[in-house]
Write a structure and sequence with these properties.
This protein is α+β, with helices and mostly antiparallel strands. It contains six helices and 14 strands. It is rod-shaped and about 155 Å long.
């Protein structure tokens, strides 16, 4: 039974029934639910903030594991990218330069996929985005590998089509290793033995006994076989493809003007003719008329140990040339 409240009305001097206005009732109800709502929200916030759910713990563990896996995969991707960059550099600077083919532009290699800088995305990525990011990187590498394979196929065609060129490039020593005493003077500025002044020495001096055979270092045609002041008895061979080799100070010449010669063919013998201070073969290699260091062209008849020995001989040769 509902309790009825009374109050003493001083105006009427009587006890009267207490009646609560509807407005007050509504305000009380509204206040109660407001306090209840705020309290509930506060309790929920405290619970979610300081008391993680088991599912949240599992999600956090999965996220940490995913980050670790992403870091490992990302490192592997970077290693693959570095290796791929090395292959591309070798393609441009080594393989294609041998055959004088134009290097492949980076824009061509990147045609299938856009190159981008690596940034740290882990903290803002979900599972799908992480997977997609790695997939994009792997697709990038795959596209570059496909392009590089095609490039190597082109190089293989260059090799097959340029057997004559490979045979023509000066690629052996003009004096055999067994007959070679030493390399008296290397490529670079040396003191001239006759004039006694610093002078550019545009070749290598191979010292050997007089009469030691001198060999053509590549296939070609003899353009000069004769005697000249300074050079003495000398031979010049045009190998084609911009290559030319010069052999000076022979005691006797065997090759003839206009003769076609093969690599390893005897073209003369070591001597001391011309401006020379001792028996030797002064040997030069020119590419399109420009003298280059011949020491880098003995790759056809030397193993690694012999080539290392040759480099040391050239490096420790006399500061004074023989011619």
């Amino acid at each position: 039974m509902k309790k009825i409240k009374y109050f003493y009305n001083t105006n009427t001097l009587r006890y009267e029934k207490l009646v609560t206005p509807l407005r007050v009732l509504l305000l009380r109800v509204f206040g109660f639910f407001s306090v209840l709502l705020v309290s509930s929200a506060l309790v929920i916030w405290i619970y979610t903030k300081f008391i993680p759910r088991p599912s949240d713990k599992e999600s956090n563990l999965r996220l940490e594991l995913m980050k670790d896996n992403y870091a490992v995969l990302n490192e592997k991707v970077k290693v693959l990218q570095e290796q791929m960059a090395g292959l591309e550099k070798r393609d441009n600077e080594v393989y294609r330069s041998i055959f004088e083919a134009k290097p492949l532009p980076d824009s061509a290699r990147a045609k299938l996929t856009e190159k981008k800088k690596e940034v740290d995305k882990v903290n803002v990525m979900n599972d799908d985005l992480l997977g997609k990011d790695i997939a994009v990187s792997l697709n990038n590498i795959s596209a570059r590998i496909v392009y590089q394979i095609n490039s190597y196929k082109q190089i293989e065609k260059l090799i097959n089509n340029q057997e004559n060129k490979l045979a023509s490039i000066p690629a052996i020593q003009p004096v055999s290793n067994k007959d070679l005493t030493r390399i008296a003077s290397g490529f670079g500025y040396r003191i001239h033995p006759i004039y006694g002044i610093p002078k550019m020495h545009e070749g290598l001096d191979f010292t050997a006994s007089q009469g030691t055979p001198i060999y053509a270092t590549g296939d070609g045609r003899v353009t000069t076989a004769g005697n000249a002041v300074g050079k003495g008895n000398h031979v010049i061979i045009n190998h084609g493809y911009g290559y030319e080799s010069v052999y000076m100070h022979m005691v006797r010449i065997k090759a003839k003007d206009g003769e076609s010669v093969k690599r390893g063919q005897i073209i003369g013998w070591v001597g001391n003719s011309g401006l020379s201070s001792g028996p030797h073969c002064h040997y030069e290699v020119h590419i399109f008329g420009r003298p280059v260091d011949p020491v880098y062209f003995f790759f056809n008849d030397l193993n690694a140990e012999q080539y290392d020995r040759l480099l040391k001989l050239a490096a420790t040769g006399s500061a004074k040339s023989f011619d």
